[in-house]
Specification:
The protein has 192 residues and is an alpha+beta fold. It is built from six helices and 13 strands. The protein has helices spanning 23-35, 59-68, 104-114, 124-130, 150-159, 161-165, and strands spanning 5-7, 11-13, 19-20, 42-46, 53-57, 72-82, 88-92, 95-96, 121-122, 142-143, 148-149, 168-170, 177-179. Strand 12 and strand 13 (177-179) form a beta hairpin. The radius of gyration is 18 Å and the shape is flat.
C-alpha cells in the first residue's frame, strides 16, 4: 500500500484546534510513536498559504514527529469544496465523503473534533469564543478523558450550585472571570 506523505516543514497546526496539551502530553505521544512509527495519518487540508497544510487531526502527533526529527509524515488530505446547493463537501484522498456542511469551517472543526484523543485538554475559552460560529451538533463529540459529550460537560459546569448562584463565573483551569449575564441558555443535546 502506498501512503501520501508531506515534508514536516509544510504542515502547521490549524488555528481552530480546540484541544490544548502540554509537553508531558507530547512526550507520551512520542513514546507511542517510538513503539509504533506513524501508526495513524495526520488529517490535513490546504491552508491559505502556498504549499502549507493545516493539521485538523493529529496536532500532538505533529509536535511529537517534529521533536523526533521525522522529515516526512503520513497524511490523509481533505479537499473541501462547495456545490451549487450551497453546502460544503469533502473529498478524502480524492474520494467524496457522505458528509455535508453549512460552511468549510464546520467541516474542518468536525474532522478536528471527531479525532480528539485521550491526551490533552479541551480549550473552553476558545470553544466559548468560537462555538456560535459553527452549525455543528456539539452533542456528538466527546471531550478529554472523562468520556463526556461537550454539550453535557458545559451544561453540568453551568448548572452547578456555585455557578447557578454566582453573578460571575471563574474558569477552573485558566481562572478567567466572566459576567454570568454574558452566557446564554445552556446548550441543548441537539447542539442548539
Amino acid at each position: 500500500m502506498e501512503y501520501l506523505t508531506l515534508p514536516t516543514a509544510q504542515i502547521k497546526e490549524w488555528p481552530g484546534n480546540l484541544q490544548t496539551y502540554t509537553q508531558t502530553d507530547i512526550d507520551l505521544v512520542k513514546e507511542e510513536i517510538e513503539k509504533k512509527p506513524q501508526f495513524k495519518p495526520l488529517i490535513v487540508t490546504t491552508s491559505d498559504e502556498a504549499n502549507i497544510y493545516w493539521v485538523l487531526a493529529g496536532n500532538k502527533r505533529l509536535k511529537a514527529y517534529t521533536q523526533l526529527g521525522v522529515e516526512r509524515i503520513w497524511i490523509k488530505n481533505l479537499e473541501f469544496f462547495q456545490k451549487d446547493d450551497g453546502l460544503w463537501y469533502v473529498k478524502v484522498d480524492g474520494v467524496e465523503s457522505a458528509d455535508r456542511y453549512q460552511s468549510k469551517e464546520d467541516g474542518m472543526q468536525d474532522w478536528s473534533l471527531i479525532d480528539q484523543g485521550h491526551v490533552g485538554q479541551f480549550d473552553w475559552d476558545k470553544f466559548a469564543n468560537t462555538s456560535e460560529s459553527y452549525t455543528l451538533d456539539w452533542s456528538k463529540y466527546m471531550m478529554g478523558t472523562k468520556n463526556k459529550r461537550i454539550s453535557t460537560a458545559l451544561n453540568e459546569f453551568l448548572m452547578t450550585d456555585k455557578i447557578a448562584k454566582a453573578s460571575e463565573i471563574e474558569c477552573p483551569s485558566c481562572h478567567f472571570v466572566a459576567d454570568k449575564k454574558d452566557f446564554k441558555k445552556p446548550l441543548q443535546e441537539g447542539g442548539e
